[in-house]
Amino acid sequence: MAGGTAWTSDELRTIAAADEPRIASLRRDGTLRSPTTICVVRPGADLYVRSVSGRDSGWYRRVQQRHQGHIEATGVEKDVERP
Residue 71: is it exposed, middle or buried by C-beta count within 10 angstroms (0-12/13-18/19+)? Predict the structure, then answer.
C-alpha cells in the first residue's frame, strides 16, 4: 500500500513490528473513518496490509475503491496510497 508514500527505515520497522497496526479508510468527503486492526507484511521498502476479517471487510472494500487510507502503529501515523 505504500505507493507514492516515502517511508523512513524507522517507520517501516515500527509499523512492521507493531502488535496491532490499524488502518482507516476515507469517506467520500475525504475524512477518515474509524481505524481497524490489520496485518502488515514488510518485504523490503514496501508495506502490504491484509484484513484480519478477510476481503469482505468494509475497510478493505473501501480502500480497494479509493486506493487511499491512513495507517497508524506505535506512534507512526501516515497517509497511504495504493499505486
Answer: buried
- 3-state secondary structure string, the chain? CCCCCCCCHHHHHHHHHCCCCEEEEECCCCCECCCEEEEEECCCCCCEEEECCCCCCHHHHHHHHHCEEEEEECCEEEEEECC
Model-wide pTM > 0.85: no
Total residues found in the chain within this entry: 83
Q: What are the start-end ranges of the H helices in 4-79? A: 9-17, 58-66
Per the listing, cell 475525504 goes with 30
User: Could you give the CA distance from residue 42 to residue 11 in angstroms, rounded to a whole number?
Assistant: 11
What are the residues facing 63 on neighbouring strands? none
Q: What is the pLDDT of residues 32-61, one digit of tens each?
A: 999 999 988 888 878 888 887 888 888 888
**Domain residue spans of the chain:** 9-78
